Amino acid sequence: xxxxxxxxxxxxxxxxxxxxxxxxxxxxxxxxxxxxxxxxxxxxxxxxxxxxxxxxxxxxxxxxxxxxxxxxxxxxxxxxxxxxxxxxxxxxxxxxxxxxxxxxxxxxxxxxxxxxxxxxxxxxxxxxxxxxxxxxxxxxxxxxxxxxxxxxxxxxxxxxxxxxxxxxxxxxxxxxxxxxxxxxxxxxxxxxxxxxxxxxxxxxxxxxxxxxxxxxxxxxxxxxxxxxxxxxxxxxxx
Length: 238
Fold this sequence. Notes:
The chain is α+β, with helices and mostly antiparallel strands.
């Protein structure tokens, strides 16, 4: 039997005392690129534009496996998360869905505790903090919203960077969509005009980007709320 004054062994050092917390372990992330090939991704082209009336967001409708196989042809990649704001899904589907659920919960808590809606700038800051510190794998969404301070569009990068702009694009087709927006966007567009411009930007990406396709969802955001509609045929909105 070991005397109480003896030095502790390695086993004793590893074993927690009866009054110490027992620390668990986090699940390991996929170790290599091969393990990520089965992750369903939105691939995606999403565009957000500020307008005279509010904000317009456009997204394609395709989900893919590693950008090579079409997993779903009817994915709604823009969701309302606030009475007058919406967020796009870009990156892994699971990570984006979890991100949206977390933001919705925080927005609802804020409203319940304070009796008022969270500002869009505050919502963008919260989204950046979540992206920086949370377990949300490979996301790069656009946040668009309207509040008393104006009409806002933010891109949120995977490291939590939050960048406001008059218009922005994220996703695998961003370079193609940006070319259209650079030519056609101008200040003072109405929401109806902006929906046409945004749909054209998404269509230009769909023509060449294998991760984007199968139609367009359009979200119209004003001080009255968020209205989202899907269109399988681009001719319906062009």
